[in-house]
Specification:
homodimer, about 350 residues, alpha/beta, Rossmann fold, Dihydrodipicolinate Reductase, domain 2, 6-stranded mixed beta sheet, NAD binding (chains A, B)
Amino acid sequence: MENVKGYHVAVVGATGAVGEKMLSTLEKRNFPISKLTLLSSERSAGKKLLFKGEEHVVQVAKPESFEGVDIALFSAGGSVSKQLAPEAAKRGAICVDNTSAFRMDPEVPLVVPEVNEADIHQHKGIIANPNCSTIQMVVALEPIRKALGLNKVIVSTYQAVSGAGAMAIKEMKEQSQAILNGEAFTPEILPCGADKKHYQIAFNAIPQIDKFTENGFTFEEMKMINETKKIMHMPELSVAATCVRIPVEYGHSESVYIEVEKEGVTVQELKDLLASAEGIILEDQPEEQVYPMASTAAGKFETFVGRIRKDLDNDKGFHMWIVSDNLLKGAAWNSVQIAERLISLGIVK
Amino acid sequence: MENVKGYHVAVVGATGAVGEKMLSTLEKRNFPISKLTLLSSERSAGKKLLFKGEEHVVQVAKPESFEGVDIALFSAGGSVSKQLAPEAAKRGAICVDNTSAFRMDPEVPLVVPEVNEADIHQHKGIIANPNCSTIQMVVALEPIRKALGLNKVIVSTYQAVSGAGAMAIKEMKEQSQAILNGEAFTPEILPCGADKKHYQIAFNAIPQIDKFTENGFTFEEMKMINETKKIMHMPELSVAATCVRIPVEYGHSESVYIEVEKEGVTVQELKDLLASAEGIILEDQPEEQVYPMASTAAGKFETFVGRIRKDLDNDKGFHMWIVSDNLLKGAAWNSVQIAERLISLGIVK
């Protein structure tokens, strides 16, 4: 039997929607764990979670929790990360942070392994996991950029409620049931728990995710714009986003228009390129009604791309439809994948 | 009391989802009707419908049904229109056809009153009502084109299931209930009753509306592209569309990117322009979370526009969110509106 070294892994926010997916992903990937520390806020501490059949008691996250930890996966909100990730890093842990706390910090690499694995080497104890809607898009854009160049991206999203947390899923389901029953209901969470007004999400589409910034774009839209440029090392790339919440439980869909640099590219070339790219499954046979959907992408690690069409007016323009599980590739799986690369690159020893 | 002339109006497809809305719209608008003839296929004939409190028996539509009819509103499928609209026209009726049968016929005007009312004069007995997703978009685009010029349109839609008929609404509701109950279900209608495969619409997004054409775009997408150019008299306009069905009952939403001709236009100018345009209600106060939604546009005649933003890279680029009730402005109301113009323009006497 091979002697595989195990690592001390901490999961911060273990009881949340993403934390739960982190644990199941670590399990599914058979991640080499010698010790598992599950951490949370005081509110959730004391809960017991199963990992590979063994019960683990969730403990209150504090600076000392990270003594001896090799890899810490954070997904407990930006303020927790801001406070505790530096403490964990100071104690020698490498933090993979799934919040927006450090993403645009020039000192912190923002990583999607299929796109910019090499950036991991620049870490100073913290590596940021990008926003869910950004991750699946750059997975599809990077092979195109590499082969054909990329000038422009315009994306409209169709985002699942699980991106707003477990309570938002509950709200969508309860609202749906109320509407089917013809009963009254009061929206309390979506579009954004931290904002003033709340709207019906069941049988509706809400063009707001996160709060609005001064320029009229939402923070979610600005994340997609700024994070894409950072991950792809293309500050000059033209990116625009409209982010919309729709009544789907798991799986973000994206309608993406791009302009490549190279002239005369065919749809078949683009399909071949994406079919052979890391982390992508091409689902694109319109004659057989084969295309990606949230319902079929949910629960999977890959990014699914289809509906690839050449623009009818612009030789360099293409349209496509990109779908992935927002809690897996969009969060838990991308974080665990970074952790796996920390090992394979020899950064965590 | 003013002596208002009444007209003999026929509604073909009176028992369908759009037919029903045509009747309620005629009622709400107090349309000057001297005689009302309700027509349908043999299957639905004999049904009784109320109009202004009076019962009307639906009759089988045949060529002779149109004797003496002034205005015939068709919404019973393309094949019925192809067969009967010319027969009705031959008998002196002016037909407003809500199917795709004649829309791209160069002899048939394709009309959205706010955009190209004058085209009504070119009619030879048939006037086509455009596709639902096209109508609401051109209502918003026309005032922009007039004031600022227009070069490019890229739209991604979020379309309600009612566009696929009453049975599709039933399917969405039953599927939603099955999923909430954890029960199995078999999709039978959506994305397109006439196509081979059927997929889950509840808690999902399906990037297919209508069948696929040879170029990889769907017929719905090609309708948006070709009809927009025809209605706006801009064969050279660059238009691209991605059409997506989402689990909403009434109200199509559209994420639209445009490029205007004029330089230096501000968001405020665009807002002022749209706020004063015919048929549009501007809902655009991000700081107050005011933007259009299907849930608030359903049941209304107007087209709602909001989320207007200037592109961050292109001075001539703007993004916006356009919502309207697909069965009203997208179908019944636009048809009745054309009928009203036939009277106000003195075409029907």
